[in-house]
Structure formats: C-alpha cells, structure tokens
Amino acid sequence: MSKTAILEIDGKKYEFPVIVGTENEVAIDIEKLRGATGAITLDPGYKNSGSCKSEITFLDGEEGILRYRGYSIEDLADKADFLEVAYLLIFGELPNQAQLDKFENDIRKHTLVNEEMKSILEGFPKTAHPMGVLSSLTSALTAFNPKSVNVENEKEMYDAVCKTMGKFLVIATWTYRRRMGFPLNYYDNTKGYVENFMRLMFEIPTQPYKMDQKIVDALDKLFILHADHEQNCSTSTVRIVGSSHAGLFASISAGVSALWGPLHGGANQAVLEMLEEINNNGGDVAKYVLKAKDKDDPFRLMGFGHRVYKNFDPRATIIKKAADDVLDALGVDDPLLDIAKQLEKVALEDEYFKSRNLYPNVDFYSGIIYRAMGIPVEMFTVLFAIGRLPGWIAQWKEMRTNKEPIGRPRQVYTGSPSRSFKEVNQR
Ligand code: ACO
C-alpha cells in the first residue's frame, strides 16, 4: 500500500503522497501543497528538499556510498577510465568497446575550437582567474554554435555531448596557457583524452614533452571521482539554468561559475592556500585548529566537512590512496604535505571535529596531488570542472528529456508592508 503524509494547518488536515526511491529514500511529494493549502515550505540551502527525481547518481552521506548509475565509485575508479564513466553517466549504460571507440572518435571530431575564440581569450587580463575565463569562454562557445540542440533528436543530442566534451577540455587548458604566456596548443587526435589534457597544458614548442603514465592514470582517476555528485550547487545550477531552455554551453558556463566558489569546487585551491599560510606562519597546525574551532573567528579548515557526507567521503578514501601512490612515485618531498598530514591527524582526533562529523573531503587530497603533478594552484578548480563536465551534461540531458518545468522557487517575503511613495524632498 502506498504511504501518505498528513499535514495539519489551522486544524485542517491535508494528505500528500510519499515517494520512495530505489534505495528507499523517502520523500513527501508536495507538488500540490500551495494549491491545496496556500502555504509553501521554507528550506534555505535546500537541505531537506529534493528538486528532481534522478536516475544518475546515488549517494548516501551517512553510509559513505557513492554510485554512478548503480556502479560503485570504488569499482569505477579501479576498473574504468574517464571516458567510459562519462559515457555511463550521460547515456546510462557502460559502453561496449565499439561504443567506447566511437565515443572517443566522435569527441575528437570536435576538438578544434574556432580561431576567433582566441581573440576573446586575449581580451582578458593575464591575471584573470582561470575559472572566470573558463566560464566566459564556455558561454562564448554559444556564439560560435548558435543552433540550440533539439533534445528529442538522439543524434543531435549525441553530437552536442561530443562537442561539449571536446571543446571544453581545450578551452579549459587555454586559460592556463594564456596566463603563462605560452602558445595555445591543439588537441592531438592520435592520443587519449586525459593524455591530451597534459599535453595541452604542458607541451611547449621548444622541447619534446615526456608524459608520465602514472600522472595520467592518477588524473584519470581524479576526473572519475569528480564526475558527478547528484544535486550539488553547480549541478543544480546547470539544471535550473537549463530548465529555462537555455542552451547546453550557457548552462555549463553557469555551472562553472557556481563551482568556482570556495565553499564548493574552489575549496581545493583554498586548501593549498591554507596549507601555504600555515607553512609561512611557522607551521603551527594546532594554532589553526584552534582558530577553526573559535566561533568568533571566520576561519574554517578548508577541505574538511561536507554538506552530505556526515561520516566519511568515499572519494576521499580512494584519493588518499592515489595521493600516497603519486607522491611515492614522484618522490615528492613537500613541507605542505607534512602539514596536511598533521592537520588530518589533529582534526581527526579532535572532539570538535569528531562531534560534528567533520572529515577530510575529496578536495583536501586532490589539491595535494595536483600540486605534486606541477599543476598551478589557480587551475585546481578548472580540473574539477573538467572532471565534473560529464555529470553536468548528464544532468542537463536528464532534466530536458524528462521535460522538467522551469525552476522557480518561492519565498517568504519579510520586507516592508505596502507604503506610500514619498517625493525626494520629503524623505
Ligand atoms: N572548519 C571548522 N568548522 C566547521 C567546518 C570547517 N571546515 N565545516 C563545518 N564546521 C562546523 C560549523 O561551524 C558548524 O558548527 P556549529 O554546529 O557549532 O555551528 C558545524 O560544523 C556544521 O557546519 P555547517 O556549515 O552547518 O555544515 P554545512 O553542511 O552547511 O557545510 C561545508 C558544509 C560548506 C562543506 C562546510 O563544511 C565548509 O565550509 N567546509 C570547508 C570548505 C570545503 O572544504 N568545501 C568543500 C566541500 S566538498 C566539495 O564541494 C567537493
């Protein structure tokens, strides 16, 4: 028998359906709430509100479970590669070899970016943050690809997916090349996607580029871990922008802006800046832990805590191991790493952090790996965006395919009641 929830307002009872998800997640369906009662719900930060039904990603913050399309993140990080996972997220099933080869080849058809995009890039000061530039360039892609995709046409949708995957990677790396004053690189269609990322970033015309396979493998894993995370801030942004039927590039551009913030994807950069600050101030980890606990001090330990993981972040467990492997393989000896390890230990043993279930999140470790790989700190969040791209595309596609209505929350108005206008000389 289907469950219902009863709500009583002013002595009158209303019944609402209760929806149960595949993993027994329970939700009260309040779609008819306002119509029936005149009331709305208030839930700042949407901590208790589901914005959609989704078949893409399941996560259980209490148990530390993350699955893409039913497959555990542990299995995917261990056995699949990034493009396989991208295909899985976007199209719903793991590709067979022929589908995977075709996907990779079709992405390659779209890896050339219109040369006129270069003049847009040159319009930015070199000091501009790469995330701001990336968001603008992604939006600018709309100007060069003005035809909006017909989501009901499978072929058009597939092409739009490949185009976005191809061009986004290139422009993402261009933000770095421009900042460094290096000539812009082109995708090499004889090489893999993640390998291309490294080349696009680091190959310079004056000397041969030596690729370190361990770095490529670790990066591939990092991209997989970041590929989707259900209705987080940037993904919800992509869905809500797309819900107005704005195009895919415009929606992804908004997602990049949302990801930029230090409470979201910007945290990996913030982690490194925090470790640098601790190091520059004598490496006193305990002092910073005290600061983080002090309610009068706005300082927070960056890379600790998570909105949904209140036990542990399963991605952090995988990435911690990857970090150890990469740092061992590269023989990195980094004082910031020692500080990170001390911080992790102190915080994990401290009652304040224990009682609030504050554990290192994925960003705590990803920043450390990126630094060891020689990736500059301002590019950390761009790497997160490259990893998250398949998730954004998958969620946008699902939202449009399900014909979801335009996202338009309500509010409780707490401003002044109606008042009469006063002429300027009477104010
Ligand atoms: N350092 C110190 N105290 C913290 C931290 C932290 N990093 N995170 C949370 N707290 C404390 C809060 O002060 C609060 O304490 P109180 O109950 O005494 O008031 C309690 O823990 C709960 O914190 P909230 O802010 O209510 O938790 P919320 O779920 O809203 O926030 C967030 C989650 C934003 C991630 C937060 O933990 C944070 O700011 N962390 C640092 C930034 C960070 O690492 N972000 C990356 C997130 S992961 C990602 O985007 C991939």
Automatic annotation (TrEMBL):
Sections of the chain in a coiled coil: none
What transmembrane ranges does the database entry give? none
- For whether the record's keyword set contains Acyltransferase, the answer is yes
User: For this protein, what reaction is catalysed?
Assistant: oxaloacetate + acetyl-CoA + H2O = citrate + CoA + H(+)
Associated pathway: Carbohydrate metabolism; tricarboxylic acid cycle; isocitrate from oxaloacetate: step 1/2
Pfam families the record matches: Citrate_synt
Catalytic residues, chain numbering: H306, D363
- Name of the molecule in the record: Citrate synthase
